[in-house]
Every structure is written in C-alpha cells, then in structure tokens.
Amino acid sequence: MKNIFLIVCGIVITSSCKNEPSTSMSKEIRTPKTTTLTSAERLANTAGIKNWNEIEQIKFSFNVGKTGKTVLTRNWTWNPKTNDVQLIALEDTIKYNRNSKLDSLQISSDRAFINDVYWLIPEFKLVWDQGTTLTEKKSQIAPISKDTLDLITIVYDNERGYTPGDAYDIYYDANHKFKEWVYRRGNDSSPSMMTSFEKFTTIEGITFATDHRSPDGATSINFTGIEITKTN
C-alpha cells in the first residue's frame, strides 16, 4: 500500500482539476441542450459529449514520461453512473465510491483520479464544472505551435475543489478541436505548464487526445488501454 501512496502522490508534475472529493460525477452526465451553442458546448460536442450517457464503464491508463522513459502509470476503471472507481498502480489496488465519505488514502487517490480525468476529457469539463468563469478571444498566437488559434480560458473560483483558483488557457482550431493549453496555478500570469494535444482517437463516439507534449518534448503525458463499455 505504500507503493500506491507514492504513485497517487506523483501528480505534482501535472495539472489538477476541480471537483470536491465527495461530489458525484453522475450529476455531470448531461449534454448541452440549447439551440444556439456556446463555444464551450461546441468544443464538448466535437469531442462526443452526446455519447457520454451511453457509457457504463471506462478503463484507461494515464502515463507520464520524462526524456522518453515512463516514470508514472496509473490504471483506472470508472463507472460514471455509479461513481465507482478502481485504481491499480505498482501492483497495488484501491477501490472507492466517490459518492461516499473517503478516507485519507482514498482522497489521495481521488486527487489523482480527478487530475487524470481532466487530461482525458477536458472538453467535457468546460460544460460540466461548476464555479467557473469562461472568457474567449479570437485569433490568438498559440504559445507552442505559434499558430493562430481561438482561445477559451476557464478560471475556477477560490472555494471549490482540491486546488481552487486555477486557470487553463485552451487553444483550439476552426474545427473546434483542442490543439494546446496552458495551465496557470492560482490564475497566475505566468504558465505553470503547457502541452500540446496530439494523436486523437475516437472510441465509441468519444474523441480523446491520447498524447500531450511539453514545448521541449522532454515531458509527455499519454493515454493507453482506453476501453469503453456501453449500456446495453
């Protein structure tokens, strides 16, 4: 169990996302219903949010690489409807339900889970998450590619989640697909981390960017083993 504690605490090199540790994600299973879609809704739709309600279970491995070597792997199984979560890391396993009261190890695991889900489906978080402010700018120079892209920024309030007050600058193309983002801890003016969005794949109607790279290419965050079980 000491091994799994070390692996779930290894999220400091990644960004974190916003949800209370005991909050049920089941209430987030919804799709935009407005006639005129906002930019956030268009981005979520492009990633396949309309198919989310059909998902019974999703499995995925979150991997972090440094200079070409994998230094961190977390294997997740998640039932979004019941909020049952299983983490396997370093041959240890922890199971919990996000609707229940969590102990200290489960909270540590849940911090990792929230972080990894944010990387997996950030487009959905634009319309799911509460306590956020969204702002937009058109035709901005993206910091990594230097391409001209549209920008949507999501800022979390100072009262929610594990790391309140954070901000994400998300650059997307004319097809409403994420291309790169900048994470700013505490809404600081300076970037804490920035990565690309690459190697898109679509599984059961959900589109994922399975690879992310830092500007110098030394750090990578990627997903493997994505499996989706749909409701019968």
Walk me through the structure.
- Helix content is 17%, strand content 42%.
- With 232 residues, the protein is α+β, with helices and mostly antiparallel strands.
- The strands form 2 sheets. Strands 4-3-2-1-12-11-10 form a 7-stranded antiparallel beta sheet, covered by helices on one side.
- Helix 2 packs across helix 4.
- The chain has 4 helices and 12 strands; from the N terminus they run H-H-E-E-E-E-H-H-E-E-E-E-E-E-E-E.
Any idea what the shape is? globular
The multimeric state of the shown protein is single chain
Instruction: Tell me the series of helices and strands, N- to C-terminal.
Output: HHEEEEHHEEEEEEEE
Proportion of strand residues: 35-45%
Main sheet strand line-up: 4-3-2-1-12-11-10
* Helix fraction bin: 10-25%
Count of separate DSSP helical elements: 4
The largest pleated sheet is described as: 7 strands, antiparallel
Number of strands: 12
User: How far apart are the termini?
Assistant: 36 Å
Class derived from helix and strand content = alpha+beta
Q: Compute the average pLDDT.
A: 88
Low-pLDDT residue spans: 15-24, 26-30
How large is the radius of gyration?
17 Å
Compact summary:
The protein has four helices and twelve strands. It has 232 residues and is an alpha+beta fold. Mean pLDDT is 88; it is low at 15-24 and 26-30.
